[in-house]
TrEMBL record:
Keywords: Repeat. GO terms for molecular function: RNA binding. InterPro entries: PPR_rpt, THA8-like, TPR-like_helical_dom_sf. It comes from the Eukaryota. Coiled coil: none annotated. It comes from Cucumis sativus (Cucumber). This is Pentacotripeptide-repeat region of PRORP domain-containing protein. PANTHER family: OS04G0475500 PROTEIN, PPR CONTAINING PLANT-LIKE PROTEIN.
Amino acid sequence: MSFLATPSSPTIFSPLLKFPSSVGTACCLQLGRAEGYPRVTMRGGSENRKPLQKGRNLSIEAIQAVQSLKRTKKDLQQLDRVYDSKIRRLLKFDMLAVLRELLRQNECSLALKVFEDVRKEHWYKPQVSLYADIITVLASNGLFERVQIILSYMKAEADLAPEIDGFNALLKALVSHNLGELAMESYYLMKDVGCEPDKASFRIVIKGLESKGEAVDLRTVKQDAQRLYGESLEFLEEEEEGATATSIQ
């Protein structure tokens, strides 16, 4: 896949920061108990430690890659060596798993560095859902300049698929962080790639931006909603009323 259409952009990862090292805890062993025998227990590591990735097991190679990146992030030369030995040799699914795991751990600079490499791979196909995940994490960490850069990457993609759930997740992230202008840009991008907004899209954009007092022009969005769902726009209240009824029960 060619990325000649992708505009040059500033470096999107920031100076490396120091993080406190984790503190080990004692371990004990737990085995099953046969009749007449005492129970022996075993626990390893901190009880508060999160699993490396919820809902999916990472391969040994992916786990080692994540750990190596985090260990060497304070040393740029060492980090480059880790890329050569641990990252660029990964298969597609492991590389994407590393990216998503770094996002889950809010390792934004490392995740963006991996994403730069992902976009250079021959198997790379742009996915709105992946962009939405990245932008959601960046926005939640207050990295709004990087949000703009990643969104510019997304707008430059030549074969972006019309992925409604991904676009809705993206719109929700932008609206919830008061990025009204970027939300409107994403709404128009959504239409440009042939992704017809649904009721959820209109609720997120119209109700979300109005409730936050964003100074954006919503006339086109409301006209699109009326064309698809009727002049009254009563459907905008359906989700909220449903949630209220559930909470009352």
